[in-house]
Amino acid sequence: MAFIAQNMSALAYANGFTLWAYKSTDTLAAIGAAGYMNAAANMVAAGDMVMLAASDGGRILRIGKTGTTVTTAALS
What we know:
It is a single chain. The protein is mostly beta strands. It is 7% helix and 47% strand. It is built from 1 helix and 5 strands. A 5-stranded mixed sheet has the order 1-2-3-4-5. Strand 2 (17-23), helix 1 and strand 3 form a beta-alpha-beta unit. 18% of the residues are buried.
């Protein structure tokens, strides 16, 4: 599937940082794939974090952003 903006909500915001929640029926691998969150480029900033609920589990992702390219990395 594709990123659905309506499934992403801001949970907290302070000093230019936002903690997001995103729920999807997609898998963790699909959501972590290159380009999945590019449609959120106008919403997110580098350093933001996303609490993710996917069809096969959950994870916290850190957002990277360059222009309209959004990357994600799982926290270890």
